[in-house]
Amino acid sequence: MITSRHISYSPDRRGSVIVVVLWAIGISALIVSSVQLVGYRQKVIGTETLAKVQSRWAARGGIEYIIAVMADHTKNPVPDDAFAMIRDMEYVSTSIPGDLLNASYDIRHHTDGHDRPGPTDEHSKFNINRTPSEQQILISLYDMTIDVVAAIIDWLDEDDDPQPFGAERDYYLSLSNPYEPRNGFMRNTAEIELVAGIWPEYLRGEDWNLNGRLDANENDADLSWPDDEPDNVLDARWSAYLTASSTQNNMGLLGLPKIRLGEADLVELQERVGVDEVLAQELINFGRNQNSDMVQLLEAYAQSQDINSGSNNGTQNPTGGTTVPLLDEDQLRAVLAETSINNLALRLPGKININTVSEQLLEQIFFENPHFVDEIIFQRNSRKEGITSMVDLVDIPVFQEDPDTLSFVARSMDTTSSVYSITAVGRSASGGVETEITVVVDRSTLPIRILEYREQ
Fold first, then answer.
1. Are 107 and 118 spatial neighbours (Cβ–Cβ below 8 Å)?
2. Structural domains for the chain
3. Which CA distances in Å does 9 have to 5, 245, 273?
4. Nearest-CA neighbor of 338 among 235, 260, 410, 417?
5. How far apart are CA 428 and CA 39, in angstroms?
6. Residue among 104, 32, 64 nearest 435 (CA)
7. What was the pLDDT predicted at 312?
8. Which of 28-32, 121-125, 159-163 has the highest mean pLDDT?
9. What digits encode the pLDDT tens for the residues 29-39?
10. Nearest CA to 415 among 356, 342, 340?
């Protein structure tokens, strides 16, 4: 016979069950919270990663847009407008609403105390790799000294014989952290500070990252490095005036590679620059003379203008004694735009662009003759198309009165540019994340080449 028993729980046992249940609830809550925390962190990381990707590719998109504009103007240039490409680059330097999804880009540079849209023209500066005969421009820079100029020349030349007050291999190998001098062309602006006597503060000033932009940390006094004046002006010291990147332009204003005069085809030269067979042959012979210089063609033309006014005669080459071909204005413009004496296969240092050079650099170059600065600024600002050829300078009174200065300007300056530094800041609309990319691009040949790439 089965009997039943009444089972009762003691208060202590019921209390243990409650404790177990509470522990289970607590552990479950902890697990849920941990899962939620991990999920939240993954969401944050995913959002930040997405924002980073958006900002990075926005900056890249802006750079590619600028490069596309350059390529189009290199293939289809506007010969009678020196500012055509610059205006188009300015137009696309800020992303237009709708161009990008949840991101934007901004491309600008700082010059003459102002922010300007678009990339930095490396030809607005003096190329430190230019020949020693043009190093006089260096000594005109603020705070530049003779010993530093001598050290720069020693860094560039191929020998190990120091200039007076200069420095060669023995000096660099004697340093606590020794290194070899280049004894050749510098490859970028940062290399300049490796030269004896050049400290980073001299070269970079407030532009510590050499991006050509006025960044927040470069306009906040001593709150963050570098020390600066919070005046909304970027004092970039020598980096605002010196470059190692500009190069000769091998593309003509007809969208075709330039012709090297000494190796020119007679018929092609006639068709390209609009001269007859006799004059084309004279130009070829002129190009074959090792003492020839394209500036001599401009000097001969300027001299012919004086001949017509009865003040002078003769068009002899003072260095080689060879008669320089005498061209009319249209022919000279075409020859200067479409031909070269230099070996076009070499990457030779570029000239200063007279249309984009900063007023501050001009004031230093012509510190003894400020009226030349005023005239250059007036000429390029008074023409919507700018100075389209160095021939434009011949009729300017101050240059007519000083032919030597005209020759100096023609040897050190030109009206076109090949190399630009593009600093693009991409920004994500959702996360506010920013990515800055700086590239140096060369359009002297097609396709356009990227010479440097920095991302932060």
1. yes
2. 125-243 (1.10.40), 259-343 (no CATH)
3. 13, 91, 113
4. 260
5. 22
6. 104
7. 40
8. 121-125
9. 778 777 777 76
10. 356
